[in-house]
Amino acid sequence: MHLRIVTINVQNNEGDPRRPALLNQELRRLAPDLVALSEVVDTEQLDALLDGTELHGTHQAEVMAYAPPFVDRYGGTAVASRWPHQVVEVLDLRLAGAGDVPWCTVAAEVSLPGEGEVLFVSTTAAWRLDAEAVREQQAVALSDLDARHRTDLPTIIAGDFNADPDAASIRYLTGRQSLSGRSVHYHDAWEVAGDGPGHTWSVDNATAAALFDQIVRQPGHRRRLDYVFTGSWHAHPKARCEIRAARLAFDQPTDGVWPSDHYGVVVDVEIGKDK
């Protein structure tokens, strides 16, 4: 079965008020089946982003009994799917060193016609440049969440990980190093099928320039922070998820307006149980 997966950090409601319409326009054009969205302010913004896409969306606020601090300003995580989904867990990853991060991880079970259930996880990691130790803990917690809920079909995890491919948190997820005596293995879709460096947070994006000036303060800053990961044979020996293509999206301005301070990632896969 063919699936199209999209991840995009929508940058809450900052900046030009025309941005949400551009995000919605691109989502309609891409026609994805699974979408991971970061920094969505609330359910109203989520509805506007998904308007006309025929996607079913869930914002973390809809499935949590409380609202993390700063969520009204920085938003939360959301998941969307072409077919109905059921949220199986929401993981609050505010840890020491990342207490100002209101973004939770939303794990949903999606029924794929003719194939069965797949676990789709939308996540957002700690953002500070000096918070890799926190991101390491978050990555381990993410893999534990998968272990609790995974199905026969390979798990799909997507979102803004705020870490370069050579960071410990990403190296852990791709099986290149252990953390706290633990190890796992997922496929990084861009590494498998992307072309070029795949930077999703770049000085070339004018919307990101002000933030770079505030927290990076160095010229020419470009990083790959947004990912789609798929579960591997080790955890799913009776199924496969073959990554066929990976490319950037939301990476061009319209009339001088950029959709977000991040670029998105679009991944096409073939997924199914072994016959």
Automatic annotation (TrEMBL):
Residues 6-262 form the Endonuclease/exonuclease/phosphatase domain. One of its GO terms (molecular function) is endonuclease activity. Keywords: DNA damage, DNA repair, Endonuclease, Hydrolase, Magnesium, Metal-binding, Nuclease. Its cofactor is Mg(2+); Mn(2+). Transmembrane segments: none annotated. Pfam families: Exo_endo_phos. This is Endonuclease/exonuclease/phosphatase family protein. It comes from Nocardia suismassiliense.
